[in-house]
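Anyone up for a design puzzle?
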């Protein structure tokens, strides 16, 4: 407005007025831009405003006569529009608070006034030759409205200024109230924080960016033994002298990459040390607290450092106890002779002891982390009897035996026990397996079983021998006592048969029966004498095949009578054997006749001879022949009806016979067994396997040497 009042020749004043106009409208633009920034919460760039200002400056030099006009176009109009928009947007963003403060109408009026101001002050300009200024200017406006636009703008500015003043006054009062509330809340918060700090069980130390202690709580005073005035204002090195990193200020700490949950030693007043766990955070100027680790450079934003120290003395003691207990358990775990393996519920091996490592022939590092099926598998993996599966399903105990090959390829027998592996809450999280090497135990068990069988066999043999001795003595005595009376009876019967006439046939027949009975009794007596004299052997080296041929000649009549085919398979070149030929002939004849009696309707008698070395299977708990002894074998095989299984254990008992009433005395096999044992040989009599047909196989084994 100064340009109108000033005379044209006052050029300097004109420029001053123009500058005042420009500055006023630039301020108006900035006012509007800042309101928009506050309303939107975003930083609005001032690039457009700067561009307008640059254009205005250029226009001053290029269009000096129209500088006033361009100031209005480029600055006044945008300033009014921005201010109007800023006021409306700010009201919309803060509507609730402004309505409560009763400023709604003021903001709406101010926004409208600034909008009208933008139109009047920015678009109505002094008359000029270009189209817009020639159409809408001071003269045309005054002619149309009857009032100068400058006057109208001045009048319009008065209510706008009053409204802005009222808004600012109200906002200032509200701000003062908010400040009072904030100060009160800050005091309460400070009191609350003081109470929290005092109640903290951990030590709290606030350190400035220069490394000076600014504030501490009671816990650190009690822990260190210092008084409050002995710490506040002092270097943090008073408490942490052993770590230059902690005493040399925030800059070094940040450069080192920070410290979080750092275990160190706290120095007490009496120069003692206490283990603490130190957590460090940075206090920033914006009031935020950030952990120190990972921060690189805060610059001027740093206010200080917050140290939180936790006394871990008891924790360290407990840790030492745990370490000691772990070491003891680990030592026990690894010194147990049984192999131990811990497997998780997914089948992965978590841990093994030394014994298991030795059993598997692998190092612990090669075992841990692998699937349980890959190391010392029990052959139950992926089956319903899988140990892990059974334990997970709720079986409290799984026990079995398994054979494995050791690192050298030998056979090992393990007794495996599986039990639940639980966590601290008792939940089953896997299986603990114990592998106990019972190979030697099994061998000892087998040896003990063998010894027991041998002892039992020896006991039975002793009993049998004692029984045989008693029977032998009894038989010898009875035979001698009965033989002579039988001879007298037989002579008497023969005498009576000669004296009785032929007409008395009944008497003669009776005497014949008596004669047969006496002769049968005499045969029994002869058998008893043979049984009692079985120890009287005359040993000489004899050929086995010759012995067999001689014995078969003695039974040929019986074989022919019963239509029995005789087959001989005699191995040539068999060495001679020390024997009593007569007794061994008696043995073979007895066995052959037993075979004949088992084939009343005919059959086949097969005689074999061969040599072999005794094996452990041939010995079969009998100590008569040792392993690897070279023996001559005589086999007598028939195709008869066999021996009932229930009689098999009794066939060598004296007077046991299955042909009672058919001429059997039960002495024959007892004599056979005694004769063979006196030759230090062995006899086996058993039924043939079903696939070979019915019949009995008798096998006589005699040592060659």
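Challenge accepted. My sequence:
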């Amino acid at each position: 407005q100064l340009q109108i009042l000033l005379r044209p020749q006052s050029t300097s004043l004109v420029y001053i007025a123009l500058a005042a106009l420009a500055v006023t409208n630039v301020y108006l633009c900035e006012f509007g831009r800042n309101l928009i920034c506050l309303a939107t919460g975003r930083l609005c760039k001032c690039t457009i405003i700067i561009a307008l200002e640059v254009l205005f400056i250029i226009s001053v030099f290029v269009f000096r006569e129209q500088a006033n006009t361009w100031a209005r176009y480029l600055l006044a109009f945008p300033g009014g529009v921005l201010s109007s928009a800023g006021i409306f947007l700010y009201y919309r963003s803060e509507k609730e608070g402004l309505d409560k403060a009763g400023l709604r109408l003021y903001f709406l009026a101010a926004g409208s006034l600034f909008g009208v101001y933008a139109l009047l002050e920015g678009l109505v300009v002094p008359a000029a030759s270009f189209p817009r200024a020639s159409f809408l200017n001071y003269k045309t406006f005054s002619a149309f409205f009857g009032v100068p636009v400058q006057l109208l703008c001045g009048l319009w500015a008065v209510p706008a200024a009053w409204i802005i003043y009222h808004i600012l006054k109200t906002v200032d009062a509200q701000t003062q109230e908010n400040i009072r509330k904030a100060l009160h809340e800050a005091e309460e918060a400070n009191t609350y924080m003081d109470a929290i700090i005092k109640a903290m069980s951990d030590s709290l130390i606030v350190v400035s960016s220069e490394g000076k202690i600014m504030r501490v709580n009671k816990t650190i005073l009690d822990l260190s033994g210092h008084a409050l005035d002995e710490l506040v204002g002092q270097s943090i090195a008073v408490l942490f002298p052993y770590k230059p990193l902690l005493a040399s200020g925030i800059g070094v700490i940040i450069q080192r990459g920070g410290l979080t949950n750092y275990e160190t030693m706290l120095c007490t007043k009496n120069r003692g040390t206490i283990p603490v766990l130190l957590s460090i955070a940075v206090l920033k100027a914006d009031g935020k607290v950030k952990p120190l680790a990972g921060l690189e450079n805060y610059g001027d934003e740093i206010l200080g450092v917050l140290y939180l120290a936790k006394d871990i003395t008891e924790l360290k003691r407990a840790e030492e106890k745990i370490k000691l207990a772990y070491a003891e358990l680990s030592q026990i775990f690894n010194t147990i002779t049984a192999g131990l393996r811990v497997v998780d519920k997914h089948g992965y091996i978590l841990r093994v002891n030394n014994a298991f490592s030795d059993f598997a022939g692998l190092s612990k590092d090669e075992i841990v982390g692998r699937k349980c099926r890959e190391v010392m598998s029990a052959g139950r993996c992926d089956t319903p009897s899988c140990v892990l599966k059974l334990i997970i399903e709720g079986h409290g105990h799984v026990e079995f035996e398994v054979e494995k090959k050791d690192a050298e390829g030998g056979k090992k027998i393990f007794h495996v026990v599986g039990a639940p592996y639980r966590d601290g809450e008792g939940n089953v999280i896997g299986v603990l397996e114990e592998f106990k090497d019972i190979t030697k135990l099994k061998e000892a068990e087998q040896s003990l079983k063998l010894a027991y069988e041998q002892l039992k066999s020896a006991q039975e043999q002793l009993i049998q021998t004692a029984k045989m001795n008693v029977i032998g003595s009894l038989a010898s005595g009875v035979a001698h006592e009965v033989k002579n009376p039988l001879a007298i009876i037989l002579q008497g019967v023969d005498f009576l048969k000669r004296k009785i006439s032929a007409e008395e046939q009944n008497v003669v027949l009776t005497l014949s029966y008596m004669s047969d009975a006496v002769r049968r009794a005499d045969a029994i007596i002869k058998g008893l004498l043979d049984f009692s004299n079985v120890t009287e052997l005359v040993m000489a080296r004899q050929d086995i095949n010759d012995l067999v041929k001689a014995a078969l000649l003695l039974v040929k009549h019986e074989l022919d009578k019963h239509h029995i085919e005789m087959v001989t398979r005699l191995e040539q070149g068999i060495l001679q054997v020390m024997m009593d030929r007569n007794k061994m002939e008696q043995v073979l004849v007895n066995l052959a006749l037993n075979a004949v009696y088992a084939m009343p309707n005919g059959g086949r008698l097969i005689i074999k001879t061969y040599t072999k070395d005794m094996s452990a299977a041939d010995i079969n708990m009998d100590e008569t022949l040792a392993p690897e002894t070279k023996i001559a074998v005589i086999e007598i095989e028939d195709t008869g009806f066999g021996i009932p299984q229930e009689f098999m254990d009794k066939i060598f008992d004296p007077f046991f016979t299955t042909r009672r009433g058919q001429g059997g005395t039960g002495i024959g096999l007892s004599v056979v067994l005694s004769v063979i044992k006196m030759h230090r040989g062995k006899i086996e009599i058993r039924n043939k396997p079903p696939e070979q047909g019915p019949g009995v196989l008798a096998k006589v084994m005699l040592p060659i040497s």
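A detail worth pointing out: Residues 1-9, 293-300 have pLDDT under 50 and may be disordered.
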